[in-house]
Amino acid sequence: MKKKLMISIFAVVISLSAVVGIAFAKGTIKIVVNGQAVSPDVAPRMIDNRVMVPISYVSKALGANVSWDQKNQTVTIKDNNVSSQEDIWKEELNIGSSSWAGVRNLIAIHIAGFDNRDDELIKSVAVEGFDLIPIGGMYPAILDYEIVDAQRTKNGLKVRVKVITYEDKLFGEIWDYEIAQGKIKTWKRVQSFDVNSYTVFPGLSYKNE
Fold first, then answer.
1. Number of helical H runs and strand E runs in the chain
2. Residue 62 contacts residue 85 (beta carbons within 8 Å)
């Protein structure tokens, strides 16, 4: 059974700031974010003298992403303007700027090739015999990606990338790349996770219905 999560979870508003305002008029509660009225699908309510508002609408109005972890029953809110990356491998890397730019460009080209099912583009950045080239079938569109960590390996670097995709619904995946001698040696998906809504940048957002 599909569970609709727009997220109908209520947050307690303890204090009101200049960013989010709660207005009372004719018995109704209005939400105003940065001067713009927000109209959630679940109306705000007053409970025990506290104003309860749907967290997803306020968060998205502030440019944050909201995700739901069904397994752990956890709502996660990420402010796109605040770095909250986890130091996965806890390693300090000493990589020259031009070398890192080359690594990043390899990954960008692979993702572009993967998204467009362009075998030749992928071959241009991968070692000979690299066989994880998408051929035929249906693939979700890649909306966005972010390099989240890297570590040294015996022959090069291992780089972790978070990818946000959309086909019939939003979805997130974690990809690991192994890069050696200026080429992608291996690539694999290591994790998947649910995404309820995602803001690429203010003015371009996607959400699951």
1. 3, 14
2. no
One-letter amino acid of 104:
R
Find the radius of gyration of the CA atoms of the chain: 21
Alpha-carbon span 86 to 88, nearest angstrom: 6
List Cβ neighbours of 38 (8 Å cut-off, separation of 6 or more): 31, 32, 57, 58, 61
User: Which tokens sit at 74?
Assistant: 């956890």
Which one, of 204, 83, 203, lies nearest residue 147 by Cα? 83
Which residues, other chains included, contact 161 with Cβ-Cβ below 8 Å and sequence gap of 6+? 107, 111, 145, 146, 147, 148, 174, 175, 176, 177
User: Using one digit for the tens of pLDDT, what is the confidence trace for 84-109?
Assistant: 556 778 889 999 999 999 999 999 99
Which three-class secondary structure state does DSSP give residue 206?
strand
Q: Is the pLDDT of residue 62 over 80?
A: no
Say how many residues make up the chain.
Answer: 209
The tally of CA atoms less than 13 A away on the side-chain side of residue 95 is 17
Residue 71's closest CA among 191, 198, 167, 199?
191
The 10 Å CB-count burial string (b at 16+, else e) for 94-128 is eeeeeeeeebeebbebbbebbbeeeeebbeebbee
Q: Is 145 exposed, middle or buried (0-12, 13-18, 19+ CB in 10 A)?
A: middle
Give this prediction's pTM: 0.63
Report which residue type is found at 168. D
